[in-house]
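Researcher: I'd like a candidate sequence for this fold, 333 residues long. If you have to choose between options at a position, lean toward the conservative one.
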């Protein structure tokens, strides 16, 4: 763990709790970060079954440089917060599984710049059914929506919100989904989807052609007899272009994987980790790195943050990776 960062983060959250007047930090569903800010998305006293707009601002901004809370945004916009991501231009994207909508936000002010979804729980080009996450392609600006609990598809839109295409159906065969729960696009342009109930990450081209599948060992926990069903979930996948490295929440752990799916490091257990992100270096954004560049940074510290649903907290960790094959601990590598 990284005690100084955690201490500052915990102190900032404690101050938030004191000032929140009835909206304490609740289930933390998503996280996003750039070289200056760490953002996290939470539900306060609400949960997945909430039906009324939240009367507080559920996206908190934590200054990584000054180790302090920098305000909150999104008051009145969301019913059931879910996914949170930053696009290459620095805009926030947030999904609401309660209102079946996707929002593009100014990350500083919270102003709504684009809204996708007509608010109906339905399929088709203008509706979602509990959308879970968003990824934006660096070159074209196309918007990829994981949709989600009800539709088992990936829906793609132009940067202005025009429906373009979709792929996926419900099931457990290759290319099908049982709750596409997280999505990210790497510097090669490949699309990675956390297929939650199928306990895997599926990798696609931007046209929806299946490239490969990363199966997770947590799939063996199905039918384990525990009421902690999330122990068999692959809930999220995120990507750091400066390291060419992925963070995947698998059951109660966060797994760092290479671009070939090899397990490099595992940390946990956490209380229902719903999202995990690699934190970019402090300062201006760096260009995408060469393939496998985590090897060039072996032995150097870097950090990742974990959003815990049941734990109702965000935890920041500092880790180091080994440089040789001994660090690759996966039969999938």
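Model: Candidate sequence:
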């Amino acid at each position: 763990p990284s005690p100084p960062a955690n201490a500052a983060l915990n102190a900032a959250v404690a101050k938030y709790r004191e000032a929140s007047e009835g909206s304490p930090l609740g289930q933390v569903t998503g996280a996003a970060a750039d070289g200056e800010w760490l953002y996290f998305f939470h539900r306060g006293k609400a949960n997945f079954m909430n039906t009324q707009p939240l009367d507080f601002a559920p996206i908190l901004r934590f200054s990584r440089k000054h180790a302090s809370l920098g305000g909150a945004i999104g008051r009145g916009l969301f019913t059931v917060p879910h996914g949170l991501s930053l696009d290459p231009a620095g805009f926030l994207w947030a999904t609401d599984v309660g209102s079946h909508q996707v929002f593009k936000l100014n990350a500083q002010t919270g102003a709504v710049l684009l809204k996708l979804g007509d608010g109906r729980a339905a399929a088709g080009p203008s509706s979602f059914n509990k959308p879970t996450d968003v990824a934006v392609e660096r070159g074209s600006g196309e918007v990829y929506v994981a949709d989600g609990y009800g539709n088992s598809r990936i829906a793609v839109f132009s940067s202005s919100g025009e429906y373009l295409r979709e792929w996926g159906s419900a099931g457990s065969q290759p290319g099908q989904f049982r709750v596409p729960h997280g999505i990210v696009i790497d510097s090669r342009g490949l699309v990675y989807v956390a297929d939650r109930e199928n306990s895997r990450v599926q990798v696609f081209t931007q046209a929806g052609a299946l490239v490969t599948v990363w199966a997770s060992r947590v799939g063996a926990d199905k039918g384990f007899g525990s009421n902690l069903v999330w122990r068999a979930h692959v809930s999220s996948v995120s990507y750091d272009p400066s390291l060419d490295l992925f963070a995947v929440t698998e059951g109660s752990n966060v797994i760092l994987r290479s671009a070939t799916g090899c397990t490099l490091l595992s940390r946990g257990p956490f209380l229902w980790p719903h999202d995990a992100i690699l934190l970019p270096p402090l300062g201006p954004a760096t260009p995408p790195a060469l393939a496998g560049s985590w090897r060039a940074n072996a032995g150097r510290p870097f950090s990742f943050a974990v959003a815990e649903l049941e734990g109702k907290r965000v935890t920041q960790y500092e880790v180091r990776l080994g440089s040789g094959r001994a660090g690759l601990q996966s039969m999938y590598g």
